[in-house]
Amino acid sequence: PSVFPFVNAQAFTEMQINKLETTKKINMIDMKCDVVKTGKHKYQLTEKVTNSLSDDTRVYQSVGRMFLLTDVQNIREDLKAKQDKCDKAIELLEKKKEFLQKSLKDQEDGLRELVQQRKEADVSAK
User: Fold this and answer.
1) What is residue 117's predicted lDDT score, i.e. its pLDDT?
2) Helix runs in the chain, H state only
3) 62-75 burial, b if ≥16 CB within 10 A, otherwise e?
4) Could you please report the per-residue DSSP string of 97-108?
5) Cα 26 to Cα 46: distance, rounded to the nearest angstrom
6) pLDDT, tens digit, for every residue of 90-106?
7) What is the reported pTM?
8) DSSP bridge partners of 60
9) 3-state secondary structure of 70
10) What does pLDDT average to over the chain?
11) Helix (H, G, I), strand (E, B), or coil: what is residue 67?
12) More confident residue, 7 or 121
């Protein structure tokens, strides 16, 4: 009987640590998602500006630390591709977040169950 409370306490501590780590991961995913959404919004605004340009306008595309002369249509296609990439990244992050939220709920249920077992053990010991 004296080992049982120690095992419960150790399991409880491990479950709390896992819960905290999962919560941190969810917060990190939220931050990453915000960054990707901001990038997507930037691409949308840039695309809106390029839509007002005529097709013969000279435009430059940033490539690393230099700029290359290109046509407006090429810029628009590149911006669309970047927006699609952002959409896919957001979708992937949302799926990861959903999985982690389910995991977090399971961990919380496990903690509740452990506390309940402890209460029942204390009641039966008295």
Assistant:
1) 80
2) 3-51, 72-125
3) eeeeeeeeeebeeb
4) HHHHHHHHHHHH
5) 30
6) 999 999 999 999 999 99
7) 0.77
8) 69
9) strand
10) 89
11) strand
12) 121
